[in-house]
Amino acid sequence: MKTTNPGLFVESNSTGFRKADTTTIFILPPGVDRCLDRCRPFLGGSQPDPGGSRLPDPNADVDALNRISFPSSGVSIAEAGNPDRPKRVLGFRDLVLFYVVTGISLRWIATAAAAGPSSIVIWIGAWLCFYMPLALSVLELSSRYPSEGGLYVWSKRAFGDFSGFMSAWTYWTSNLPYFPAVLYFAASNILFMRQTAWGHLTNNATFYIVFSLLTLSAATLMNIVGLDVGKWLHNIGALAMWIPVGIVIVMGLIAWHRYGSATSFTLHSMTPSTHLNDIIFWSVLTFAFSGCETASFMGEEIKNPRRSIPFALLFGGVTVTLCYILGTAAILLALPSSEVSNLQGLVQAISKTASRVGFPGVLPVAAFLIALSNIGAAGAYLAAVARLPFVAGLDRFLPPAFGALHPRWKTPWVALLTQFVLGAVFIFLGQAGTSVKGAYDVLVSMGVIVYFIPYLYLFAAMIKLQREPAGPEVIRVPGGSTVAKLVAVLGFVTTTLTIVLSLIPQPDEPNKPLALLKIVGGTGALLLVGIWLYSAGKRRAAQVS
Questions:
Q1: Chain segment 114-163, per-residue pLDDT in tens
Q2: What pTM value is reported for the model?
Q3: CA torsion, points 453, 457, 462, 467, in degrees to nearest 10?
């Protein structure tokens, strides 16, 4: 039900009134409760029985009671109910594949292998200190509040309107540098399909720009037509991601069996270095484990979200972890770390290993699948994060057009198109004044910083919302509130350190001052724009009321 008044719609139960679609119980003052009892013959709904409990009235006009609203500035209109909402189209299988395609990025496997065998230990540390706290927090918060918007709803409920908007704004804008970064990686792998004919495009900025624009356009169009259409790009991308990892693992084992390991796995070589440049690298692998919160942004488009999200998250999390660790180890079995490139490392490893074991024909297929998997990941993120400005538009913190659905396809088309336009701008800006490799590193660093700011809100909300009662259907962190707070604190500290480390440019960046200016300036500009938009939205809402 739409309303211009950001109120709270309620439904009757035996203990008072409960906000629709959540487990939070609101007990009304006795006088109000008695008043409503007297009004029930006119409104319909439950009737008091002689024992004092309320029994369902089969002739009740339920909609009449649902039309009652109580103003509450801390509750999102998006949570309250909207008949013109997106369709529930994501089943359990779709959700598992969504977690895979957004949770695994094959480029990080090559990045880890380039750092040597110590990266395997760093993978495990990042999993313990970041991924597990994140996954457990998302599991409980999405079970408590399975509404459209996810992070936006959680932050707003914990800390109010401004925090909800800024968490959504920073997450949404973080994908602007993400799209060119992941699409540059896809473009670099496409070249290996015909390495001899297309190899000269490796450092051609025009090729990367054109490829990124075309693929971003296709992903945007599919998601505008509908999530039931766009999800097939995500699903195919997930399957295309599994196959190259499997190829790497199998061929790495074959190379190890025939020729021995190309890398020495000893206690010394697997001990992570504590030099500053190596510590900076830790933040990159931590970033690789992000993404398990994205599906919750589409909570009202998932079939049975309270049941589907936890099980899909568990299966997806195991898959992500194994692919990263086993994939890295397999590359190092086939190649020494000095021969692995950050930008083209995975397909490069396949190329060299295929030549050694006598399967050169696998290279074009693997290169195509790696590129396809990254295009699928871009489409999945595009779909998920568009739901953040959608719910902000419903709350009128953004212009109301953002809260409108396409009349035919029921998708947030304004948010999708806006993100496409801004993503295209970042594709061009990323190439300004530096090499392709330099642009890639700047985009990654900026993406880490802006992307991790919402995680500060997420972990802080996890701590704050432990004060609210959880119903029996809520899946809690094992150990209860105390363990949940400790887990969230660990995630908050890890996130803070990752942001600080990401401010430092990559060691091989030729123009470090320019790279730092791009990172800090771009991040600061996005935050200031978000504050301005929020202030404008509040003024607009005040004028309407």
A1: 888 999 999 999 999 999 999 999 989 988 888 878 899 999 999 999 99
A2: 0.76
A3: 160
